[in-house]
UniProtKB/TrEMBL annotation:
Taxonomic placement: Eukaryota, Viridiplantae, Streptophyta, Embryophyta, Tracheophyta
Protein role: Invertase that cleaves sucrose into glucose and fructose.
EC number per UniProt: 3.2.1.26
Keywords, ordered alphabetically: Carbohydrate metabolism, Glycosidase, Hydrolase
InterPro entries in the record: 6-hairpin_glycosidase_sf (IPR008928), 6hp_glycosidase-like_sf (IPR012341), Glyco_hydro_100 (IPR024746)
Reactions catalysed: Hydrolysis of terminal non-reducing beta-D-fructofuranoside residues in beta-D-fructofuranosides
The organism's place on the tree of life at top rank: Eukaryota
Chain ranges passing through the membrane: none
UniProt-recorded Gene Ontology molecular function terms: endo-alpha-N-acetylgalactosaminidase activity; sucrose alpha-glucosidase activity
Species in which this protein is naturally found: Gossypium aridum (American cotton)
UniProt family annotation: Belongs to the glycosyl hydrolase 100 family.
Protein name, per record: Alkaline/neutral invertase
A biological-process GO annotation: sucrose catabolic process
Enzyme class of the recorded protein, top EC level: hydrolase
SUPFAM superfamilies: Six-hairpin glycosidases
Length: 550
């Protein structure tokens, strides 16, 4: 097999390697090319795009082919200009852009060339989301549109792992651009899980794709992309995977370990909060994007039914506050019939000691996992923030989550925002749950590490709940170190004091997460891209206590 040359970003870095994985010839159809060149149409059914006067000063950036890329970057931001980190962050963002046939299609995961690249030279679907939001806020829509179309095109290819064919709707975890010297053209190579650690398909990629499509449509006012037959079909394929009938007795999605941001063995198999919150948000976004034609109406009906069941299940069985914790502590076991209180037969003796001290008098959160005889009481940041933004959390629950963050600031934020989960697995529990994973040792990486990218989710949740001061405080903490430390992927230690032992520098989503947080705090109207208001029709009668009654 002839060697292939990676053309990953406009900085001209080149790496030679043998071909591996599944190579996809990304030959765009004439239809897609015409769509990309079509003048933008405005659909009045979406809210008017908020004006953004903050990003008026720009500089030009050249593509690797020596032509103007069309990308602009802000140099002054009124209140932003006081911090030099913003300009530096935008410079790094531009260097991270990946081009495919002279069109920007995404950003690489990291630009740290001091260590082996592994898969950090690829465009990850979940990693690109904060980059996409930053570009949209800056009026740079082309790369987001191209990314949505390219990943949609990759979804259509046959996906095989060994002798097993994956579902048609699975979106790639990542892709990269390579140059084939024999054919003398660029092609795409995609990873649907066949190269991932543990060989797990990314459940979250499809959800992030739908959420980003809605963000693009909401921000630009352009519904023509979402209304493309290809986009409508792509959404229906994703939804078919999620809404299919099987042996489930719960409306939540059953998942394997490593299927989301936590992509290694960390005991999140079952019904992890991150996937359930993203599932809920993607369903709500799809409800806004699907056309009410014959095929669309069928899916809309199924979505509405699932949303009602899912919201009830999550708000009742995943929610934990002081009163509910006390109720679980007093649970009886081996209950039968429909009158059972302990519906999942959870053993009170399985309650971890730490949760009694962690739970404040006022506050609460969605726990990590609920399944038969199992409750994972760990706090997971992404799932709880998305629960707020999607309105899976009621206004009262959203307020309680923010109360918890304020009350447990040292534990969840510490010296560098933000803990991906809390607490860390240690000793025998770490050996059993992670399989002695040397990367997920206590207070490191996914096992209680601190991830700056989560700053944008926290900021969005803070703005939605009327607590911008919490976000401002967290951003100031990040500004003390992020730039000096060269934008690490994550930090280690109980308070996030140390740069992660295997953390890549110049991690793109650490950079973009900071930019999105800054721009959103400066102009809260950007929140509309990533936030959904509560649907009153989905609000069930709460049968369990919540912290705001304390």
């Amino acid at each position: 097999m002839s060697p292939l040359r990676i053309n990953g970003s406009p900085n001209g870095n080149v790496k030679t390697l043998g071909s591996a994985g599944t190579i996809f010839e990304a030959e765009d159809s004439d239809v897609l090319l015409r769509i990309m060149e079509r003048p933008r149409a405005i659909n009045v059914s979406f809210e008017e795009r908020p004006s953004n006067e903050l990003l008026s000063n720009h500089f030009e950036c050249l593509s690797p082919h020596g032509r103007r890329s069309g990308f602009n970057s802000p140099r002054s931001y009124t209140s932003f200009e006081a911090h030099a980190m913003v300009g530096e962050a935008w410079e790094n963002m531009k260097r991270s852009i990946v081009y495919y046939r002279r069109q920007p299609v995404g950003t690489v995961a990291a630009m740290d060339h001091s260590v082996e690249e592994l898969n950090y030279d690829q465009v990850f679907v979940r990693d690109f989301v904060p980059s996409a939001l930053a570009f949209l806020m800056n009026g740079e829509e082309e790369v987001v549109k191209n990314f949505l179309l390219k990943t949609l095109h990759l979804q259509s290819w046959e996906k095989m792992i060994d002798q097993f064919k994956l579902g048609e709707g699975v979106m790639p975890a990542s892709f990269k651009v390579i140059h084939n010297p024999v054919r003398n053209r660029e092609i795409l190579i995609a990873d649907f899980g066949e190269s991932a650690i543990g060989r797990v398909a990314p459940v979250d990629s499809g959800f992030w794709w739908i959420i980003l499509l809605r963000a693009y449509t909401r921000h630009t006012g352009d519904s023509s992309l979402a209304e493309m037959p290809e986009c409508q079909r792509g959404m229906r394929l994703i939804l078919t995977l999620c809404l299919s009938e099987a042996f489930d007795t719960f409306p939540t999605l059953l998942c394997a370990d490593g299927c989301c941001m936590i992509d290694r063995r960390m005991g999140v198999y079952g019904y992890p909060i991150e996937i359930q919150a993203l599932f809920f948000m993607a369903l709500r976004c799809a409800l806004l994007l699907l056309k009410e034609d014959q095929e669309g109406k069928e899916f809309i009906e199924r979505i509405v039914k699932r949303l009602h069941a899912l919201s009830f299940h999550m708000r009742n069985y995943f929610w934990l506050d002081l009163k509910q914790l006390n109720d679980i502590y007093r649970y009886k076991t081996e209950e039968y019939s429909h009158t059972a209180v302990n519906k999942f037969n959870v053993m009170p003796d399985s309650l971890p000691d730490w949760v009694f001290d962690f739970m404040p008098t006022r506050g609460g959160y969605f726990i990590g996992n609920v399944s038969p005889a199992k409750m994972d009481f760990r706090w997971f940041c992404l799932g709880n923030c998305v629960a707020i933004l999607s309105s899976l959390a009621t206004p009262e629950q959203a307020s309680a989550i923010m109360d918890l963050i304020e009350s447990r600031w040292d534990e969840l934020v510490g010296e560098m925002p933000l803990k991906i989960c809390y607490p860390a697995l240690e000793s025998h529990e770490w050996r059993i749950v992670t399989g002695c994973d040397p990367k997920n040792t206590r207070w490191s990486y996914h096992n209680g590490g601190s991830w700056p990218v989560l700053l944008w989710l926290l900021t969005a949740a803070c703005i939605k709940t009327g607590r911008p001061q919490i976000a401002r405080r967290a951003i100031e903490l990040a500004e003390n170190r992020l730039s000096k430390d060269h934008w690490p992927e994550y930090y280690d230690g109980k308070t996030g004091r140390y740069i992660g032992k295997q953390a890549r520098k110049f991690q793109t989503w650490s950079i973009s997460g900071y930019l999105v947080a800054k721009m959103m705090l400066e102009d809260p109207s950007h929140l509309g891209m990533i936030s959904l208001e509560e649907d009153k029709q989905m609000k069930p009668l709460m049968k369990r206590s919540t912290s705001w009654t304390c």
